[in-house]
Amino acid sequence: MKTQNKRKIINDPVYGFINIPSDIIFDLLEHPFFQRLRRIKQLGLTHFVYPGALHTRFQHAIGSLHLMTKALDVLIAKGNNISHEEYEAVCIAILLHDIGHAPFSHALEHSIVKDISHEEISLAIMQKLNSNFSGKLDLALEIFQNNYHRKFLHQLVSGQLDMDRLDYLRRDSFFSGVSEGVVGSERIIKMLNVIDDELVVEAKGIYSVEKFLIARRLMYWQVYLHKTVLSAESMLIKTLKRAKELAKNNVELFATPSLHFFLYNEINNSNFYDSPEPGQKSILDLFTSLDDDDIMVSIKEWSEHSDKVLSLLSKSILNRKLFRIEIQEERFRKNKIDKIKASASELYKINLKKIDYLVFSDSISNYAYTLEDSQINILNKDGSLIELSEASDILNIKILSKKAKKHFLIYPKDIV
Amino acid sequence: MKTQNKRKIINDPVYGFINIPSDIIFDLLEHPFFQRLRRIKQLGLTHFVYPGALHTRFQHAIGSLHLMTKALDVLIAKGNNISHEEYEAVCIAILLHDIGHAPFSHALEHSIVKDISHEEISLAIMQKLNSNFSGKLDLALEIFQNNYHRKFLHQLVSGQLDMDRLDYLRRDSFFSGVSEGVVGSERIIKMLNVIDDELVVEAKGIYSVEKFLIARRLMYWQVYLHKTVLSAESMLIKTLKRAKELAKNNVELFATPSLHFFLYNEINNSNFYDSPEPGQKSILDLFTSLDDDDIMVSIKEWSEHSDKVLSLLSKSILNRKLFRIEIQEERFRKNKIDKIKASASELYKINLKKIDYLVFSDSISNYAYTLEDSQINILNKDGSLIELSEASDILNIKILSKKAKKHFLIYPKDIV
Amino acid sequence: MKTQNKRKIINDPVYGFINIPSDIIFDLLEHPFFQRLRRIKQLGLTHFVYPGALHTRFQHAIGSLHLMTKALDVLIAKGNNISHEEYEAVCIAILLHDIGHAPFSHALEHSIVKDISHEEISLAIMQKLNSNFSGKLDLALEIFQNNYHRKFLHQLVSGQLDMDRLDYLRRDSFFSGVSEGVVGSERIIKMLNVIDDELVVEAKGIYSVEKFLIARRLMYWQVYLHKTVLSAESMLIKTLKRAKELAKNNVELFATPSLHFFLYNEINNSNFYDSPEPGQKSILDLFTSLDDDDIMVSIKEWSEHSDKVLSLLSKSILNRKLFRIEIQEERFRKNKIDKIKASASELYKINLKKIDYLVFSDSISNYAYTLEDSQINILNKDGSLIELSEASDILNIKILSKKAKKHFLIYPKDIV
Amino acid sequence: MKTQNKRKIINDPVYGFINIPSDIIFDLLEHPFFQRLRRIKQLGLTHFVYPGALHTRFQHAIGSLHLMTKALDVLIAKGNNISHEEYEAVCIAILLHDIGHAPFSHALEHSIVKDISHEEISLAIMQKLNSNFSGKLDLALEIFQNNYHRKFLHQLVSGQLDMDRLDYLRRDSFFSGVSEGVVGSERIIKMLNVIDDELVVEAKGIYSVEKFLIARRLMYWQVYLHKTVLSAESMLIKTLKRAKELAKNNVELFATPSLHFFLYNEINNSNFYDSPEPGQKSILDLFTSLDDDDIMVSIKEWSEHSDKVLSLLSKSILNRKLFRIEIQEERFRKNKIDKIKASASELYKINLKKIDYLVFSDSISNYAYTLEDSQINILNKDGSLIELSEASDILNIKILSKKAKKHFLIYPKDIV
């Protein structure tokens, strides 16, 4: 099983000591692909609002692994048969579920690396690791892609109550200091069971599940979609788009070599997987050398670039002089936006054509529980199953599953 | 203001250090009426299920006081004018709001001291203290009775978001170890404000309020109405009723002197306030000498009493051999109950007339948010007010406010 | 192993969920002898100073059991061979290690039940349980009495770093709110190992052990020997001694039947184990029906007794009007004590002969680490062992092991 | 005082809500010099061992500010006169006390920016801010430099029990997950007082102070000087030294512009403060644009540099393949080191002259309490003062104040 020297314990401020369950998990942890996650913050620029929210995807992946071992142990104790291979495979799947995330994932997907989801990249990286590890990740890949017949294993990795969510809600609330987001993950896990290879929650866990959904919603509005965070991340998208446009026009820009490639080349779904020229790095290799630091140091340099749009945006992010953001239910009137654009154009002596980088409107939406998505099934004492939306009289699940769409308008604060 | 020697700090596992804000509060804390609360557990027999839930009404009263000072400081910092007298009075009101609770309050109200609510007794005790303190509690009494024109002060003592609830939910979840019941009381308090002398919550606090209501509901089903607790407390009621009946029939029973009086006399709303005979104690004095210990030692002795019903019930409570409890939405069929009664009668050789003490059905109900009660008003940024049930799309407030009624059936475990 | 219906989880505010490891442990938990511990507070009257310190010996015993399972799992994972029988036996031994404690243990040992240590009574109770459980506690008893050849098992129950201490320090600091007493029990346990059947601590755990010793010392002075607690418990001793003296003189006193026996009979080492008359209860049975409540309700009644000494002491305890306490390194001068006695005698019109109950001096001592006691051995990386007092340069172990003796003088506050 | 729009609350995972006490503090927080601290981790590469230890100097500065306001409020409540100006000035002093830290402070001081302490740079930055803020930092500067007659104000910023230490110990233990390092800062602060303008601790705080010193020592050995951290930081120093040497020899190296300047120029105490050429940035400006990201992205690029030494070191840091470290009390024998060097030279085909970058020995030392430094004075109840080393019988303060020196030897793991 586990050789002595790989028996490692990791100190986690959230859960205390975390044990690494097996050798291959240890080896995956040590791999540069996984170590890269140390340099990618889980919540991007959220630390501009919650200074403690500096935790990384590395920590989250290990935390999810920890909850996975707890969940598996509970399921086994309840008499569910889980083989050693399945145990290890689902641990690998959860460990690597987010390995394809770019730095500032959301922002980059809207500016630099287009039309490729982080799930696809996670899959590509897992496949590459699988060939490095001579096929030992086969079952993990099956589970990850939901091709394995025991669906509950996939559901533990990706489902309404997966270990990913249970960890990130707890971890994000811990590090942001928004203590209300705390989720009773321990109790939910104790209530899990498997019926016909599907994950279910025992009836007496229903209050915990309700609270989980409410906590998640609270975290959305209070943290993930906090208006100041939204402003910062929108500004980051605009900054990267501007840089990309300048690059297209062959304007010289400082960029770390990794970032330089993605600025000066058009990468998308169709060429991402192209084989590299001999002696060259593959795009995946280049991608996996990108991290938060590349973005941040480039922005720091851009804050003194001669392009006014780029430098204004970059300096504002660097020094956290974030733009004003207004949020409302309805779309903003064109009239209002145009007026602000005119003022901005005048104030900054910036051409109206380029003013869209500084004054812009968009929308966001969020939903806490999706019906189309996998459901949460509640197991009654008599053995019958019932869907949560029927089991819970208190939660208006229909509304939870309805996208809540909000419009926002962003512009520099010195425009009155 | 505050003399040096009364500047006292209390260590509280929940909040850390608690400061006593003024001399009269300190003097009230020292009064035997208040010290009695040290001997009355907040959650009665709940520690049979959650062994840590031994905290007392004394701790809760001081915790509520602590939150009150925090809330008042927030309101003052927001520019609300609160005089020194009002500050002190509302602190006194919250400190004493539960001072009239009997030991095992709910159980005693159904067995020994009838038709008198603990609120009425709290009022009587506060009035008695007011005369001892030469009228210094006048304003506190006005606020407590909601006769003072600034309604928000009463609402802080007793309302949807009063300091009583904010403390007990947090404290009960802390000591029971049900961490999910934890409420972001700190954040809710930061969001309070006053409009037209009514308490309101600023709009961005709505998610915290939603979570508060869900946490409260969770605590109801997981702790306050936990089936084993329900069984224990129902058995306690039956035990005391049996003791009372035996007393009525002049059967000799051990009882501490305080309890003895209430067993051998019929006390109710109409004679509770009667003036005592000269040289005798008033009923209020006798009442305030009763505490949890009187009940528990008496039950311990009764466990060896010759009355089979009394001893069986008492021994079962003493050694935590609690009766089986079944819970369901519908009323239990008479047929089923009668069968169980017959078995019990045969098993214990107890007359069918008396078997109701051992086999019985009843119902409980609960609601987390009452519309008839004071409402929670949300203050929008534009200054408008909106009721929570309209402001929250997610919570089905109508359902929260609907009494959830459940029926239960209790009988000894050795009846199959 | 473990049947489904005895698979029980206990909610503990300190550690979260605690699993009961086996059926016999579950059955012992359910036994009236063990349930009695629910009615005995771990820290006696300490809640007069730290209102949260209401936790019971029941909680502590279960917490110690929990740490024991953690420690055993660590030792097994390090390759130490521990049989299933040994595992269960040492769990039983720790669970029952304190089962012989009287209510307000220290106070009662100085007043009512003389010359019998709680260890002896624990042993007697364990032996009685062993006969009830048809010898299944044989090995547990061997370990408890340190007659088993694998010494480390006894050391886990009773030694410098036993699970008893690790739990009570953590639990007492948790419930008292003295957060500084918190001990890294999880880390110390991870550092345990066994060499030649003796418990050792791996070298890198030395800082945790140092901190454990310092935390323990802090808890002594800040909690266990807090001067107000000392005053309360000394007053309790005097109260019980006075009651006993009155009983000897055939003065009628209220007492619960269990307490009554011990007040009106002289119980000591020589007659404690006497066989009872036929149809009578044994002294052990009487002893195990005594709990905190017997003492407290009796004191409540005594607060109105005609004996001035008894009522003054009792009323002062009941209402927490504790006597003044002075503490100093040197013995108090007889001169000073006599003066105070004279004032007290005059003030209360109490005969000088009896004034010793109200004005008295005594001493306490404490040591955090005893050399005579079992030692803490540190295991170096090279396999050599070294005693802690040699391994730690920072701690003056000699001083830690020296009894720190302090004298105190107690008298009513209204004597100036 | 405080205008409405600057009334800001910061969420801190350690303390909860933190209030910004005044406008100028708010403006300083917003300044780019202070915002830079968001990009400088408090504990450098410690997160390689404790993944949660990503907290920044920004968070620490705000946490220290928070404790400072608590301490000042306690001192004022005890009757010490502290003017509004003093209050604000000492808050500014603590807020800015670490503003001069370079990224990976210790490592950079040994490689790139020589002979200039971070205290000197902090002072230079504060002076620059003072001129920006038209002299409003005059008093803060006086206090910071210990030129103000009320010494206790300086001692709160820098002394045995300053707010800096109280915050960083608590914060570092919180984020590293080493819960044993937790210090009862709240209690120590409650025990502070001022005698003759010097900070003292009231006698009953002595156990908390002892525990603080022990916790600090534990943090030193368990976190600050953890052997793996030591290895990582030593490797960082070697990497930067190698880069600097290559730069000196005009080898081309990737570096962010800010870092480039410091690599290709010799900066030290004598030219740091030189006035810049017209139109050029001052060295201080260049320094304040350096942060952790500059170092980390450069190392990432260097991991593919043609210089074998540079790339080996850089790649090892990047992917956390840290070198082996041996630690012992005595100096390592030259013989042993030379053998390892020879193996390394052969293995990596690296010239023996350059092998010192990969195989090297050095020493570290640590002391928890320095006598020469300001002392901790304990205030007895009788008003007398006594130094801690005399007041504490348990701690061997002489040993605490003795530098504990350890030698270490570092080399790549593939050398057996």
Structure description:
The structure is a homotetramer of 416-residue chains. With 416 residues, the first copy, chain A, is of the alpha+beta class. Chain A has two domains: 4-226, Orthogonal Bundle (Hypothetical protein af1432); 227-365, Growth Hormone, Chain: A (Up-down Bundle). Helices cover 48% and strands 11% of the residues of chain A. Chain A contains 19 helices and eleven strands. Chain A has helices at residues 23-30, 32-35, 57-77, 84-96, 105-109, 118-132, 138-144, 151-157, 163-176, 185-190, 206-224, 227-248, 257-264, 283-287, 292-302, 308-318, 334-348, 388-391, 397-401; strands at residues 9-12, 16-19, 113-114, 192-195, 198-202, 267-268, 324-328, 360-366, 377-379, 385-387, 404-411. In chain A, the strands form four sheets. The first copy, chain A, has a four-stranded mixed sheet with strand order 4-5-9-10. Chain A has a three-stranded antiparallel sheet with strand order 7-11-8. A two-stranded antiparallel ribbon of chain A has the order 1-2. In chain A, α4 (84-96) packs parallel to α8 (151-157) and α12 packs antiparallel against α16 (308-318). Chain A is globular. Residues 1-5 of chain A have low confidence and may be disordered. The interface between B and D is small, with 5 and 5 residues.
